[in-house]
Amino acid sequence: MSITKATSWILRFPSNRAAAERSDEEFELIGVTVEDSSGHTGTGWTFTSDYGGGASVKALLDTILLERIVGRESYEVEIINAELFHYTHRLGHGIASMAIAAIDIAIWDLRARQQGLSLAKALGQARDRVPCYGSGKASPSLPMNDLVELSAGYIAEGFKAVKIRVGREPDKDIQRITEVRAAIGDEPLIMCDANERLSLPAALWLGKRLADLNVFWFEEPILSQDIEGYRRLRSALPMAISMGEHVHSRRDFMPFIREGVADVLNPDICFVGGISETMKIGHVADSFGLGLAPHFMSVLSIHVAAALPRSTYLEFYPFMDDLLVHPLLMEDGEIVVPDRPGHGVEFTQEAWKTYKVA
Prior knowledge:
The chain is of the alpha/beta class and 358 residues long. The protein is built from twelve helices and 13 strands. The strands form three sheets. A six-stranded parallel β-sheet has the order 5-6-7-8-9-10. A four-stranded mixed β-sheet has the order 11-4-13-12. The protein is globular, with a radius of gyration of 20 Å. The chain starts with a strand and ends with a helix. One of its GO terms (molecular function) is hydro-lyase activity.
């Protein structure tokens, strides 16, 4: 059942108001659909936000990569991933890793569907539920009242942890986290994500004050390339340091792992080259006793997290729920692992009609 057809597409849709930093912010899903000789299909995608860079990813797929997977078998998915990495690595990371991710996810989806299994089971599912935290309703642009209301709403829904974005105005972040803590109580966990906004002095200043508010982890306080900065943060701050959504492969994670400067790794399936690479990162994290909390794309990350017993938390970020036939189910602070064939993601006909641009 070799791959007989591979096509690409783009869905572009508005960002959720509670997550957006600008009123006109948009997401793009740059996708790949593969089909085998028996009519099975598989779907994968990567994403861009805000900058409209999806066209460059699609161009790489259409002009170079997709033709290289036609005629291949789905069981070759990890070999294909490695071949595409070596074929594109002189282009640098970023766009190439994102394009490879869309292909890798699509082939894994196809492979699981051919076997009649959920993706989690095809990866070696170890559990039926994964602890999660509520995310995506904490833009630094939100007024204080909205931030507090939305954070408390997550707890009312049954979440036991929430993530708040910080770093735009560190002095005001203290008040924002203080108000959220007062609203949700002492028991739920609070994670804080600075999205690489801070200088090292500002990160040290803010981190020490967030520790007083019992923040569980401080995510991406500084640029992800600054290993020395992370070393100083790790030695100075009492809470866990998490990072990695802007790291593009297991090879790029290794300096942070060897130096012991990160406690929780946050690989993004859509940025590191897909499911194949994310699983490898998870096994490396396990070997070094580190936590793993896959970034952002919950509908895919749930399958990987279910197959990696050391997964600490899963980010529940329902940014595209309105596009899906089957949104994820959360019960009592945990995401239920879907059991539909493949990753189980199906976009509604309305989503294709409204948001497909290429």
